[in-house]
Amino acid sequence: MTPELLAHYGLDREHDRLRTGRGRLELWRTQEVLRAALPGAPARVLDVGGGTGVHAEWLAADGYEVELIDLIPLHVERAARLAGITARQGDARHLPVPDESVDAVLLLGPLYHLSDRADRVRALAEAVRVVRPGGLVAAATINRSAAVHDMIHLELYLRPEMRKVALSALVDGDLRHAHEGFTAYMHDPDDVPAEFADAGLPGATRHGLEGAFWLYRDINGWLDDPERRALVLDAQRRLESVPSLLGVSGHMLTLARKAS
């Protein structure tokens, strides 16, 4: 957790990122994929790196028993205020949770900020340790091309220093000193299944969350209108696992189950 990243999350903008604007597409698509894969409520779900509880909130509303773990004290404080959620501070690589004690583990943020492959595999291995046999492990990753796409969408690519950051991330995946202090590791989509396999999770499936739709200029207009929103969600649902389109999404969700 770098000083830049601590400063970024200290701005307290993470709380609204998926609740407003085009970030809603990522939220709703994550809900779709997870609801189709999670065991029935009231299963126990561990939300690792869960931020201020944007996913924990709907999971609890769906009837799940949810525990959230996050490195950022501000996030834990915000999440603890939500009904039906237990929240505490912790590190994805060293989970303060007993072996085989939960039904599903979600890592919908930690792999963004672990630039060393060994740390990412360690975080996934910790998820394998704490989930019960047959349980679900789901992890979100940011795609390698997302910085270039997003900076063009936001017109930040016009600035030479931002362009340099985005193009550098295309080479090695390390996004450094980006907009508002955000730093991240950005995956080649084809590298993720091998990280899962090395952690003891072979046979992972990949789901592109936003497709190309997050880059559309009028995407908020589509998401605001229930009829058009349903069409966008249905379209991406049909395209989510097309191999040639996985890297177009800003984010990818990868799922696997622990051997029984």
TrEMBL record:
InterPro entries: Methyltransf_11, SAM-dependent_MTases_sf. It comes from the Bacteria. Gene3D superfamilies: Vaccinia Virus protein VP39. Pfam families: Methyltransf_11. SUPFAM superfamilies: S-adenosyl-L-methionine-dependent methyltransferases (SSF53335). Residues 46-138 form the Methyltransferase type domain. This is Methyltransferase type 11 domain-containing protein. It comes from Streptosporangium longisporum.
